[in-house]
C-alpha cells in the first residue's frame, strides 16, 4: 500500500520511486517524477526548486492513489491522461492504443512523399485510435486532406477531441471496419496508412500486463497470425487507390511480419516498388509500397 504521508516533495518522490522498484515497475524514478509533476501541475525544474517544501496536503491523497494504481501496473499514460507523439500531447484512455514511438517512423516515411504528391492528396488512416497518425499527418502536411477511420465510436471520440485540441479540425472521421467506409463512399485515397492490430491472438496472453489488461484488445489482436488486417486492406488496394498516377501505402507491422506484408503489397499493387524501414532494434517496422510519381 502507498499511503499518504506528511513529507517534503523530495521525500514523496523518493518514497514513490522505491515503491515502484519494489513492485518491479521499470523506470521507477521516471514514473514517480511524472506522477508527482502531474499531480502538482509543475514541470521538472519547479519540482527540483521546490524539493524541500512540504508536499501540498491537499494533493497527497491524489498522489498516493495514482502511485498505488501505477504500482498495480495501470499504464502511466492512463493516470496522466496523455502521451506525447511527434512532439504533441495526445489524450489517451482505455478506448485507444497508447501511441508508441515506433509509429513516428511511419509518420517520417509518409512525410517523405510530400513532393511526390503535389496537389492536395487524400490520405486515409485506417484504425486511427487516438488519432495520432491522422492528426500528425494533417498538421505536418497542410495541403493534404486527411480521413481517419475506426470501428470504435469510443476511439473516434478520443481522436476527434485530439484533432480539435491540436488544431487539426480538417481531419474527417468515419466509423467502420477497416476500409469499408472508404469503399462505401467510393473514395480513392492517394495514400493509405495504417497501424492496425497485429499481435497474433495466442500471443495476446503473453503481453505485458500493462498492455494486456489495460489497452483495447480490438487495437492489438490481429487474428490467428496477426496479419488479418493487412490481408483485408491489401485485398482492396486495387479498388481503393487511384486507377493511375502516384499511389502510396504504408503499414506499421509487428516482429517477423515485414516480409509477408511486403509480399501482400506486391501481390495487390501492380508495378509498385516496396521497402522496409527498420526500428532502433533492427525489427522491420514500417512497410511501404509506391506506384508511379
Ligand atoms: N506495438 C503494440 C505493442 O507493442 C501493438 C500495436 C498494434 O497491434 N498495432 O503492443
From TrEMBL:
This enzyme's EC code(s): 2.1.1.297
Residues of the Methyltransferase small domain: 103-198
Gene Ontology biological process terms from the UniProt entry: methylation
Sample GO molecular function, one term: peptide chain release factor N(5)-glutamine methyltransferase activity
Keywords: Methyltransferase, S-adenosyl-L-methionine, Transferase
Domain of life: Bacteria
CDD domains: AdoMet_MTases
InterPro entries assigned to the protein according to its UniProt record, in alphabetical order: DNA_methylase_N6_adenine_CS (IPR002052), HemK-like (IPR004556), N5-glutamine_MTase (IPR050320), PrmC_N (IPR040758), RF_methyltr_PrmC (IPR019874), SAM-dependent_MTases_sf (IPR029063), Small_mtfrase_dom (IPR007848)
PROSITE patterns per record: N6_MTASE
Keyword Methyltransferase: yes
Transmembrane segments: none
Keyword Repeat belongs to the record: no
UniProt binding sites for substrate: 195-198
Domain Release factor glutamine methyltransferase N-terminal: 11-81
Residues engaged in binding S-adenosyl-L-methionine: 127-131, 150, 195
Reactions that this protein is recorded to catalyse: L-glutaminyl-[peptide chain release factor] + S-adenosyl-L-methionine = N(5)-methyl-L-glutaminyl-[peptide chain release factor] + S-adenosyl-L-homocysteine + H(+)
Function: Methylates the class 1 translation termination release factors RF1/PrfA and RF2/PrfB on the glutamine residue of the universally conserved GGQ motif.
Family under the similarity heading: Belongs to the protein N5-glutamine methyltransferase family. PrmC subfamily.
Protein name: Release factor glutamine methyltransferase
Protein's organism: Tumebacillus lipolyticus
Amino acid at each position: 500500500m502507498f499511503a499518504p504521508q506528511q513529507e517534503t516533495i523530495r521525500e514523496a518522490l523518493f518514497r514513490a520511486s522505491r515503491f515502484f522498484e519494489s513492485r518491479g515497475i521499470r523506470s521507477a524514478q521516471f514514473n514517480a517524477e511524472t506522477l508527482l509533476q502531474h499531480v502538482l501541475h509543475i514541470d521538472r525544474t519547479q519540482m527540483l526548486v521546490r524539493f524541500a517544501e512540504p508536499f501540498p496536503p491537499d494533493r497527497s491523497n491524489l498522489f498516493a492513489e495514482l502511485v498505488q494504481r501505477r504500482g498495480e501496473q495501470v499504464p502511466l499514460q492512463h493516470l496522466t491522461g496523455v502521451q506525447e507523439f511527434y512532439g504533441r500531447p495526445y489524450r489517451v484512455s482505455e478506448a485507444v492504443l497508447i501511441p508508441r514511438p515506433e509509429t513516428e517512423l511511419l509518420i517520417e516515411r509518409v512525410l517523405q512523399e510530400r513532393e511526390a504528391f503535389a496537389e492536395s492528396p487524400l490520405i486515409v488512416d485506417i484504425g486511427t485510435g487516438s488519432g495520432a497518425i491522422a492528426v500528425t499527418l494533417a498538421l505536418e502536411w497542410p495541403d493534404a486532406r486527411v480521413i481517419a477511420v475506426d470501428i470504435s465510436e469510443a476511439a473516434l471520440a478520443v481522436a476527434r477531441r485530439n484533432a480539435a485540441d491540436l488544431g487539426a479540425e480538417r481531419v474527417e472521421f468515419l466509423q467502420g471496419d477497416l476500409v469499408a467506409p472508404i469503399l462505401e463512399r467510393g473514395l480513392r485515397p492517394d495514400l493509405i496508412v495504417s497501424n492496425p492490430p497485429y499481435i497474433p491472438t495466442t500471443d495476446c496472453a503473453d503481453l505485458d500486463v500493462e498492455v494486456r489488461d489495460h489497452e483495447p484488445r480490438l487495437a492489438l489482436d490481429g487474428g490467428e497470425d496477426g496479419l488479418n488486417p493487412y490481408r483485408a486492406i491489401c485485398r482492396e488496394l486495387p479498388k481503393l487507390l487511384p486507377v493511375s498516377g502516384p499511389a502510396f501505402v504504408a503499414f506499421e507491422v509487428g516482429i517477423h511480419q515485414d516480409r509477408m506484408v511486403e509480399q501482400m503489397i506486391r501481390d495487390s499493387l501492380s508495378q509498385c516498388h516496396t521497402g522496409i524501414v527498420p526500428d532502433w532494434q533492427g525489427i522491420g517496422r514500417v512497410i511501404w509500397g509506391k506506384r508511379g510519381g
